[in-house]
TrEMBL record:
PANTHER family: BLL0895 PROTEIN, LUCIFERASE-LIKE MONOOXYGENASE. Keywords: Flavoprotein, Monooxygenase, Oxidoreductase. The keyword Flavoprotein applies. Residues 6-329 form the Luciferase-like domain. Belongs to the bacterial luciferase oxidoreductase family. Pfam families: Bac_luciferase (PF00296). This is LLM class flavin-dependent oxidoreductase. InterPro entries: Bact_Lucif_Oxidored (IPR050766), Luciferase-like_dom (IPR011251), Luciferase-like_sf (IPR036661). It comes from Nocardia callitridis.
Length: 371
């Protein structure tokens, strides 16, 4: 199968952007991606970060769904420790019904302790604790979607589903609304970041769709092996066609023009001021340095553009992605990291069109590599 294309929107907007500008740019990207032929768009949920400021991805999804026809939407991810699972289950089910098959659900624990603190969780940096919250939340949500009576008194939440009452006189006032997702249950995706990601293990255990944030070849290979082992141990098929990997990709007519636009444009601005410091902080840079056999002292924006990103002409980007496929086994969907081209969208939309029409059709999973 040829590689599919998606967007992942965090959204990496400059801190001075207004909420309206961020909202409009996210919707504009969804509409453009749909027309270009992208398969999916994921919208992150963050409540504390100025550069990553979408507290309610479902609002963008609902607005963009009215202006698109084919592209599938996913919150990536709803942070389950930050919301009551009963409320979220109803919200997800209703939005899934509205989109009639163009929706899948991303779930996560949250990466920023500040955001957890806002939601009353003082030890948000304890990933074991927040992952336990994810499991309990999802257990409640799945029970609500089944619409069978229960009451859950848990460690973190209480929730239930009542018995439906039936009146003898045909009175409908006691009937319960059906907020189960379109098709009965949603497709669920989970994002992995760290090398030994517990999220990838959880995704494999449950047969969920795996999504990796690219942080080096070894991390990517570890993600897949962790997922595959957990999936097979629990009776699920580990199919690379369902595997999404996010990466920074920018395509222009020539290598020189693509690099110039990245270095001098919104991508370079964001990485210098926000993402490169985060990569050092979370040791994400370590994997990239190991891949290239580089000296950490040599690492700057240009080094990252040349050695980490997939930047260049269509031929160059095809070559770079194929090298990644050869080294890691490949994936089904390239989830392109979105950036803030609000002031001048043309270079960004041109890049997306080249990715969808001149890059992705030339990249396929290696023959026989589905697991």
């Amino acid at each position: 199968m040829a590689m599919e294309t998606g967007l992942i929107v965090h959204p990496y907007m400059r801190p001075e952007r207004t909420a309206r500008q961020t909202f409009d740019w996210c919707v504009q990207q969804a509409v453009a991606a749909d027309k270009i032929g992208f398969d999916s768009i994921m919208l992150s949920e963050h409540a504390s970060q100025r550069w990553e400021n979408i507290p309610n991805p479902e609002l963008i999804i609902a607005a963009a769904a009215r202006q698109t026809e084919n592209i599938k939407f996913a919150p990536m991810a709803h942070l389950l420790p930050h919301q009551h699972p009963a409320k979220l289950a109803i919200q997800v089910g209703w939005l899934s019904q509205i989109l009639e098959g163009r929706y899948f659900l991303g779930v996560g624990a949250g990466a920023y302790p500040q955001s957890s603190y806002i939601h009353g969780i003082k030890n948000g940096e304890d990933t074991k604790f927040t992952n336990e919250m994810v499991r309990e939340s999802l257990e409640i949500m799945e029970k609500i979607w089944k619409r069978e009576p229960f009451f859950h008194e848990g460690r973190f939440w209480n929730a239930g589903y009542p018995e439906e009452l039936h009146a003898d006189d045909g009175d409908d006032q006691h009937k319960l609304a059906d907020f189960s997702p379109w098709g009965g249950a949603p497709e669920i995706a989970v994002t992995g970041f760290s090398a030994n990601s517990p999220s990838m293990r959880f995704a494999g255990e449950r047969g969920f769709r795996p999504v990796s944030i690219f942080s080096g070849l070894e991390a990517l290979k570890t993600h897949w092996e962790t997922y595959r082992e957990a999936a097979e141990a629990n009776g699920h098929v580990a199919d690379r066609a369902r595997y999404h990997v996010s990466q920074t990709v920018f395509v222009a007519d020539t290598d020189k023009e693509a690099k110039r636009q990245v270095m001098e444009g919104p991508i370079g601005y964001c990485f210098e001021r926000y993402l490169i410091p985060i990569w050092w902080r979370f040791h994400m840079m370590d994997g990239f340095i190991k891949d290239a056999g580089a000296d950490p002292a040599d690492v700057d924006l240009e080094w990252v553009v040349d050695n980490v990103f997939c930047v260049g002409s269509p031929d160059t980007v095809v070559e770079k992605i194929n090298r990644l496929f050869e080294a890691t086994g490949g994936w089904g969907t390239l989830q392109v990291e979105s950036h803030d081209y609000y002031d001048d969208p043309a270079p960004w939309f041109n890049s997306l069109e080249l990715i969808a029409k001149e890059v992705a059709p030339r990249i396929s999973l290696p023959t026989g590599v589905q697991a």
